[in-house]
Design a protein that fits this description.
This protein is an alpha+beta fold. The chain is built from 11 helices and 8 strands. A 4-stranded antiparallel beta sheet has the order 5-6-7-8, with no helix packed on it. A two-stranded antiparallel sheet has the order 1-2. A two-stranded antiparallel sheet has the order 3-4. The chain starts with a helix and ends with a helix.
Amino acid sequence: MTNGNFDIPLYTTAEAARFLGVPTSTFATWAKGYVRRPPGRPAVIGEPIVTSTSAEQGYPTVPFVGLAEAMIIAAFRRAGISLQHIRRAVGIIQREIGLDHALASERLYTDGAVILFDYADRDHDRELGGLTEVVSRQRVFAPVIEQYLERIEYGRDGWAARLVSPATDEPVVVVDPERSFGQPIFIHGGVRVEDVLDRWRAGEPLGEVAEDFGVPPRDVEDILRVALPAAA
């Protein structure tokens, strides 16, 4: 992964959340952390678990590496793992793999399941143990997590290089820092998602917009189902 992928912000919190198919408030908790003050009890502080930077509201704060990390966090949440346990899992992975941004490393794919199972087995942590299963005598990630990992393409340097959005059942949208400045583009058609949606929002018929951009109408419909709730 080039240095820019680690520190150049490309996505706002809302854009990153929409790509992953999670609520913006949820992604903000991952990227900015939180402070909760229960009545009569000490404040509970959650540190960020996704790489982001500071910026004025409406400006990008999430670099590509942060989006890749968040994709794994989204997979863990989809598997029913609590945020508390996810924070524990992130710490274990970072420590055992020995890399910053380990969630965006291919070593998570090759070593992560064994690392987490070994920890869960030692500490009798049934929740983290649920992240993995045995297939052909090999310890691998549970199917729901594997589905997310299969949408990550790694570069020769071992870092995430291309992400296919998990927000739709079928692969429809991809982000690649080497294309369109890392903005989401349709896999079929290769055009920016926002360019297509802008035409649709302007009142043009979906079929005509899809034809002009060379994008299958079904793909545009799939993205609209994701984009409209976030815009509401």
